[in-house]
Design goal:
Blueprint lengths: L2 H13 L4 E6 L4 H14 L3 E5 L21 E4 L3 H10 L3 E5 L5 E3 L9 E5 L8 H6 L2 E4 L11 H18 L10 H12 L4 H7 L15
Parallel strand pairs: 1-2, 1-6, 2-3, 4-6, 4-7, 5-7
The structure holds S-adenosylmethionine.
The site of S-adenosylmethionine has 13 residues, from helix 5.
Length: 216
């Protein structure tokens, strides 16, 4: 662990936005799944959520994803409706990317609120049931011949609007994670091979030095 690498890890964690996330409902193509996670990393999503496709489980990661999956945890859920309810119970507004009577332009929403963007499968989109329990339905207006965007393009469009609003609100200026969470994540990101050993032994992580060095 070089001091430069540790400084990079600390800096990125200071920008993480635990109150911004996505829920991917049965997104089954690995390159789409990886591309969404890469955008999540870029805007500061700490943990993404996913309902695995009925066949095959969570997509395996694409080697070209820039390893975003190392930096964005993925929490798995049994189904979209229960996932939406769980996220709402945790204080998130869930915005379903779905065309319905109540759909609004995605730019009309306030993304400085704790927010989860619900994204649908390539073939089926978001189900009516999941869209129905979401707090709002949003769309990216389409003026061309094709009816929908690639799911990763839609995710990027919406998440960078969230980043724009959060930058304007100063939400990247001070860490959104508590000092205890930052300490834990700094250790796990800096020493991914050691962290599971401490967890298995039920021991607290050791305090790192200023430059990320392990105690002697
Ligand atoms: N046939 C599907 C349908 O009827 O919804 C198309 C799914 S689209 C290829 C995959 C996902 O990308 C959608 O479920 C949604 O999450 C997102 N998406 C694509 N175009 C979008 C748009 N214009 N506005 C909002 N989300 C969009």
């Amino acid at each position: 662990m070089t001091p430069e690498r540790f400084a990079k890890i600390s800096g990125v964690l200071n920008l993480r936005q635990p109150s911004l996330t996505v829920l991917m409902d049965e997104v089954n193509k690995p390159h789409n799944f990886s591309a969404v996670l890469r955008t999540c990393d870029a805007v500061g999503v700490l943990t993404a959520h996913a309902v695995p496709p009925k066949h095959g489980g969570l997509p395996t990661f694409n080697a070209t994803s820039g390893s975003a999956e190392k930096w964005v945890a993925v929490e798995s859920h049994a189904d979209a409706v229960s996932a939406v309810r769980q996220l709402q119970a945790g204080g998130m507004q869930v915005l379903a990317t779905h065309l319905s009577q109540r759909s609004v332009d995605y730019r009309e929403l306030d993304y400085t609120r704790p927010t989860c963007v619900l994204l649908g499968a390539e073939k089926w989109g978001v189900s009516d049931e999941a869209a129905g329990v979401a707090d709002a339905n949003i769309i990216i207006p389409m003026f061309g011949m094709v009816q929908s965007l690639n799911v990763s393009v839609a995710a990027a469009t919406i998440l960078f609007e969230a980043q724009r609003q959060r930058l304007a609100a100063g939400m990247y200026q001070t860490p959104q994670l508590s000092e205890a969470e930052l300490q834990r994540l700094r250790f796990e990101w800096a020493y991914p091979e050691l962290a599971p050993l401490y967890v298995a032994r039920g021991e607290a992580y050791p305090a790192l030095g200023e430059d990320g060095e392990l105690p002697s």
